[in-house]
Amino acid sequence: MTKEIISTDQAPAAIGTYSQAVKVDKTVYLSGQIPLDPATMEVVDGGIQAEIVQVFKNLTAVCEAAGGNLQDIVKLNIFLTDLSNFPIVNEIMSQNFETPYPARAAIGVSELPKEVGVEMDAVMVVD
Description:
β4 (73-80), α2 and β5 form a beta-alpha-beta unit. This protein has one domain (3-125): CATH 3.30.1330.40. α1 (47-65) packs parallel to α2 (86-96). The relative contact order is 0.23. The protein has a 6-stranded mixed sheet with strand order 1-2-3-6-4-5, covered by helices on one side. The chain is α+β, with helices and mostly antiparallel strands and 127 residues long. It has helices at residues 47-65, 86-96; strands spanning 3-6, 21-24, 27-33, 73-80, 103-108, 118-125.
């Protein structure tokens, strides 16, 4: 087994004791991304739609740092503080992914770091 820590300044730096991603052989485990602007480390303005867009940007940056892209994601977990925002996730996800889509879960939670409305983590497989 080979284990590699993935890190990029194009995504927010870790705000705790974790790596942005860990690659084991061809599988990449992406840590949860919240809607932080990597340049300022502040939550983006503009409400839940802007937050979801930023999360996908952050996931993209980590995927690319690991040698892949969003299309290589095989499992996506979405955490929302308000599940009524799920249609917005679907709309923005359809702009970032092509079929076949990854397996996915949507989980309603009471709270997320920095009082954001969305967090996503993923598993990616790269060649």
